[in-house]
Amino acid sequence: MYSEFDREVGEMRVEQERQARIDAARAELKRQGREQCECGATISPARRRVHPSATRCLECQEIAEKEAYLK
Ligand SMILES: [Zn+2]
Questions:
Q1: What is the mean pLDDT of residues 15-29?
Q2: What angle do CA 9, 6, 17 make, to 5 degrees?
Q3: In angstroms, what is the span from residue 27 Cα to ligand 1's centroid?
């Protein structure tokens, strides 16, 4: 038999743990960046060392930067 207080504390814990897992997963994703570009090319390990959070290969990055510049 749970009291209202126990139930609320339990829900809070579940919510906190869920949020912590999401945050950890996001941080991990950001830290690692991606191995594969959206175009399907593999992002070189050298590039990923310089830009650990890179999500694009060099060519796509240049195109994206040019597009951003032209806007
Ligand atoms: Zn690419």
A1: 88
A2: 30
A3: 23
Q: What is the pLDDT of residues 41-59, one digit of tens each?
A: 999 889 888 888 888 999 9
In whole angstroms, what is the distance from residue 47 CA to residue 45 CA? 5
Q: 30-61 in b/e burial notation, b at 16+ Cβ within 10 A?
A: eeeeeeebeeeeebeeebbeeeeebbbbeebb
Residue 28 Cα to ligand 1 middle (Å): 22
Taking the centre of ligand 1 as the mean of its atom positions, its distance from the CA of residue 19, in whole angstroms, is 32
Distance 25 CA to ligand 1 centre (A): 24
Dig out the tokens for 18 from the structure: 């869920």
Place of tokens 């743990």: 17
| Residue tagged 């796509």 (tokens) | 60
